[in-house]
Amino acid sequence: ELKVEQNPLFLSMQEGKNYTIYCNYSTTSDRLYWYRQDPGKSLESLFVLLSNGAVKQEGRLMASLDTKARLSTLHITAAVHDLSATYFCAVDSRAGQAGTALIFGKGTTLSVSS
Amino acid sequence: NAGVTQTPKFQVLKTGQSMTLQCAQDMNHEYMSWYRQDPGMGLRLIHYSVGAGITDQGEVPNGYNVSRSTTEDFPLRLLSAAPSQTSVYFCASKRSFSGNTIYFGEGSWLTVV
Fold it and tell me: B8 preceded by cis ω (within 30°)?
């Protein structure tokens, strides 16, 4: 059974600081997804990581994937208030049917203050 | 292009009532899925479908029924609503074999009293 664990679950940051969110998963998977969710809203896709060693960056966020360690990280650089949200990682549970059956972590709620 | 459309957006049900959450997509996507989101639990997979006529169970299928008679629609039926089914429900779709983007609907907020 595929399990996905995120940590920390809550993160309070000061503006300008750096931090990393970790996502561990228990079995081999084709790809890993990162999403952002604002309160009362749907999920916004941030990154899709397809292979070992994949690294993607968008603004102050950078995601990486180590399939051998079954670990993905979401690194936040010089946090700003607008990054306050809940971040989820998710992993495909169906090999060969990518995107149809995701298993999600519990989410990391990020609060950035000045 | 409306993307993934969920209806209703908000619903209050009494225990024991049945209802159907509708999900429709206009992108000709083969893959469709239903998730529920509860505080502190993240999203959990209820049922999914890889094409018309094909459905399968996810992590938390009990109390829910699905069918997929067309590519466009994937309704989720609550057979006899229970307070434990109070949640936010998200439908998602994706094209098979190409592209990486999964499209999520806006969500349906369901309260069972």
Answer: yes
Sign of CA dihedral A43, B36, B95, A28: positive
Q: How many CB pairs under 8 A join A and B?
A: 61
B106 with A43: Cβ contact below 8 A: no
Residue of A nearest to B47 (CA): A101
User: Pairing between strand A10-14 and A108-113?
Assistant: parallel
Interface test with A, best of B30, B100, B108 (most A CBs within 10 A): B100
Question: What distance in Å separates residue A31's CA from the closest CA in chain B?
Answer: 9
Q: How many residues make up chain B in this entry? A: 113
Does pLDDT of B1 surpass 60? no
Per-residue pLDDT of A83-111, as tens digits, reads 999 999 999 998 778 888 999 999 999 99
Question: Which DSSP string do the residues of B22-41 spell out, in sequence order?
Answer: EEEESS--SEEEEEEEETTT
